[in-house]
Each structure stands twice: as C-alpha cells, then as structure tokens.
Amino acid sequence: MKAPRPLGIVIKLGTSSIIDAVSHEPLIATLSLIVETAVRLRKEGHRVVIVSSGAIGVGLRRMDVEHRPKHLAQLQALAAIGQCRLIGLWDSLFSHLRQPIAQILLTRNDIADANDQRTQYLRAQNTFAELFDMGVIPIVNENDTLAVEEIRFGDNDTLSAITAAMIHADLLFLMTDVDCLYTKNPRQHPDAEPIEVVEDINALEADISTPGSALGTGGMSTKIVAARLATSAGVTTVITRSSTPGNLVQILAHIQASQGLQLQKSSSFASLPLMAAAAAVPPPPATSSASSSTAALPKPPLHTRFLPWAEPVRDRSFWILHGLSPHGTIFIDQGAYQALVEHAGLLPVGVADVQGHFSDNDAVRLVVVDRNTHTPEGSTPAVATPGAVASGTEVGRALVKYSAVDVSRIKGHRSREIRDILGHASSEYVAQREHISLFRGKGSRPASPSLRDRSPSQRAATSTSAVSTESPLHKVEALTLNSEEASS
Q1: Residue 253 is inside which H or E element, if any?
Q2: What is the spatial order of strands in the sheet that 101-106 belongs to?
Q3: SS3 state at 101
Q4: CA 193 to chain centroid
Q5: Which CATH number fits domain 8-306: 3.30.360.10, 3.40.50.1820, 3.40.50.1980, 3.40.1160.10?
Q6: H or E segment and range at residue 477
Q7: d(CA 470, CA 241)
C-alpha cells in the first residue's frame, strides 16, 4: 500500500492568540500547546510553517508601554524591540523538544521583484524547501520594522495565505479568539448559528464586524480575504480557536475523512491535551457513499472550513495576481479582452487608455471599458461579443513591455507602427500572454490588499468610483490562463 503523502500545513497566529491584551504577557500555556502540536506534525513528515504576529505586543511589554501608539515610527521601533524577543521565545519553547526553527521576515516587496522575473519569489520558495528538507519549522512574520502600510492592516492573515500558496500547502489554519464564523454576532444574538463549511465565499452570509484586538490590527474581515487567496491557490482554509490548539489534530482527522486528504495517522497524537485515542476518526467504509460516510463522522471541534478551488491558481499566475503591487492601469476594449481569453497577447490596438506611472516590466491592472465614439486615428473600434464583460471591470493583471508614456503613444495603433511612433520596438505586444493572468468574470476574485490600500474612510469615500481596484474584498475570481502552467 502506498504511504500517505506528507501535507503542507500553515498555522497563522494573531497577536491576540499569543499575547494577553491587558498585561502584554505571552500566553505561555497556549504557545506551549502550539509548539507541541507543530513538532508532532513535523515528526510525522508534514511540512509545518508558523506565521506569527506579536512583535509589537512583545515590544510594548518590554518597554512597559500600556497602549499601542498611533505613530508609525513608534510602531516600527516597538516591532524592532519585540521581534528579537518574540523569536527568542519561540526558539526557547521549541528547543525543549529539540526542534530547530528559522526566522523568515517578509514584506510584499520581498516577493514582488517583477524586474528580475520573480527571482525573489522563487528564492523564497527555495529557502522554504531547503528548510523543510532539513527538518526545520520556519517562523514567518511581516517585517514590521520596515513595512509602512502593512503595519496598519491585518496583513499577517494575507501573508499567511501567500505563504501557503508559495509552499503549495494543503491546509491553512487561521487561529483566532473565536471558534468559527457565525451568521450573526453571537455575543449580541443568541440565535446566531455557526458556519461550518463554506463552498462559495461569494455566497457567504456571516457576521464579520468583529474588529481586531487592542494589540492586533486584523479582524474577521481580513481572514475572509486570506481565505479567498488561499482557496484560490488550492489550500483548504480553516478558522478555529487558538486557545485550544490540540483541536487541530481532530480537525485534520475530520478533513482527512471527509475530503480524502492523506493525513498520516500516529498514536503519538493521543497524548495531546484534549485528545484521546478514541477521538481518532476511522476511515469511511469502502462500500459507503461519500455523503453517508461524512454524515457518520464524529463531530470535530467547532470550526469554519473553506473548501479550495478545484482548479487552483498556481505559481506564476498567483504571483502576478497577488505577489505584485500594480503601478497603474491599462484600459482595454472588449475585443482585446476576448483575445486574452483565447490565449493571445495584448496588442496596442486593443488599448483604449492608460492611467498611472509605470515602467516596462512593472505590474498593471487590466480593466475592460467600452470604446469611446472618438477612437485614435488608425485604430479599429472593438465589437462587443457575447462574452463581453461590464465596462469598468478589472479582468486581470499583467507585466508590461512598455512604460506608461510609451503605451499612451502607441495605444490604438497596429504593432507594425510601434517602431515609427517610438523609434524602437522591443515587442509587438504591450504585454505578452505568459505575463498576463486573468480573473473569472463570474463569482468573486480573491484580491490581496495592495501596498497602496487606503484607510477605511478613504475606501468608503471612493467606493462609488467607476473602477474599484483596491478594495480587499473586490469581487472577481482568478482564472489560470498562462502558457507556463498550461504546459505543466
């Protein structure tokens, strides 16, 4: 019988999960249980990553500061103070079980090296792979000492999703101070019902009004963003309570039985707190149907599970869509969009307008618009097709071959005219097809928050604009249409 394959498991811990909100003391009991769970999973051959917040919280305790400051420089200084103590705490706890760890500090720019063809993203992947081969558990955190906008948003949820996609993880656990998502706020509505399985995030009706803690910057809405990103990359995402990390094992066993994930069984899990050998979920009988087997499974600890996409967005497409920060927008006509859907590149004749300041090899948004009645000389107005999308819809991202200034000069013209207009022609395409990733027109796309995301009040003030491109919950789903992945 073929041995079950190891799983990639990412465990994300928010500040409120590891730091007391009042005393700012580390929650040693919770951290110890998390360490024990992670080590046992690693010894079973699984690739385990911990995404840990808490640097600022630890810094507050070290400097005896009662309240989280508002000034960015103070936050960054506290993060610098707390980060070394936080990783020291993790190392101390893991060393009791003789488990080596590694610290990985990231910002969005660390994986957004578009000019060098995502070299840094690939190097990060290789670093993770080498650490796994060495039996090391990486501890990942946002580099709050250098980050700017990220420090004011619950970006470690997003970071955990990007990390899970980067290592091709099977499961992402978003550990928080509640058991799961509810239809209403359970603290205010006794009739609130738990949401245990989410098949379509677009149809999700849950109360996500709970803000982040006094120390943290996230909230339930940022976990929905993370779930969108991770599930689009084929990662099953789970929201569950952080104070009982031993529940991870029961949830894993339940997912194994209900979804068919090949989690290695081990009697060593029986010694975990809140666990017993009888709690292990037996595999469903071979003669039973999937539905009847799932119905007969013992109830796992309360959690919300987001099911992954059947056709996930991987590697280069995911990197273009979510690893990069777009520097501008190219508006294309319906005909150009249909050509992209059919795997053609973006020609200048299909470009209607340009917005922003970008250079060649920068990432840009692609937005479909209807052609104006006045088109540039030599251009051909686009003809609407049955598959046309609504004007103003962002349909994808691309790495461009020309700067914003050059694209604005050649827009609407034929490729053979590029050299006459610019004096040079590095490509017949504004963007080649292998450098373009598209979203699905139906459903909801998982949009990673941009480095330039505005504050909530600013987003509300601009929510009526023609093209909503920076809202973390902007809805359009991703479609993998790139030649690199098609060949694989």
Answers
A1: helix 247-259
A2: 101-106, 137-142, 47-52, 8-13, 171-176, 236-241, 304-306, 197-198
A3: strand
A4: 27
A5: 3.40.1160.10
A6: strand 477-479
A7: 30
What does each C-alpha distance from 145 to 68, 69, 77, 138 come to in angstroms?
15, 14, 7, 19
The pair of three-digit structure tokens given for residue 104, joined into one six-digit string:
């990985």
* pLDDT level of residue 148 (50, 70, 90 thresholds): low
Dig out the tokens for 46 from the structure.
């699984």
Question: According to the model, what pLDDT value does residue 364 have?
Answer: 94
Asked if 471 and 448 count as a contact pair (C-beta separation under 8 A), the reply is no
pLDDT at 280: 38
Q: Which is the CATH superfamily of the domain at 315-487?
A: PUA domain (2.30.130.10)
Average pLDDT, whole number, for the chain? 76
Written as one letter, the residue type at 487 is: S
Helix (H) or strand (E) holding 140: strand 137-142
pLDDT band, residue 297 (cuts 50/70/90): low
Q: Are 94 and 101 in contact (CB under 8 A)?
A: yes
> Which position has the token pair 């949401």?
195
Q: Which residue has the higher pLDDT, 143 or 115?
A: 143
> What is the model's pTM?
0.72
Please, which pLDDT band fits residue 239 given cuts at 50, 70 and 90? very high
Helix and strand tally (H, E) in the chain?
15, 16
| Residue 63 CB contacts under 8 Å (≥ 6 apart), including other chains | 78, 81
Exposed/middle/buried for residue 172 (C-beta within 10 Å: 0-12, 13-18, 19+)? buried
Per residue in 357-412, pLDDT (tens digit) is: 999 888 999 999 987 533 444 444 444 444 567 888 899 999 999 999 999 999 99
Amino acid at 102: A
Question: Mind spelling out the 3-state secondary structure of 106-121?
Answer: ECHHHHCCHHHCCHHH
State how beta strands 197-198 and 304-306 pair: parallel
Q: Are 175 and 220 in contact (CB under 8 A)?
A: no
- What pLDDT is recorded for position 295? 52
Q: Can you read off the two tokens belonging to residue 163?
A: 């990390």
pLDDT bracket for residue 91 (50, 70, 90): very high
Under 8 Å between Cβ of 383 and 336: no
Residue spans of the domains in the chain: they are 8-306, 315-487
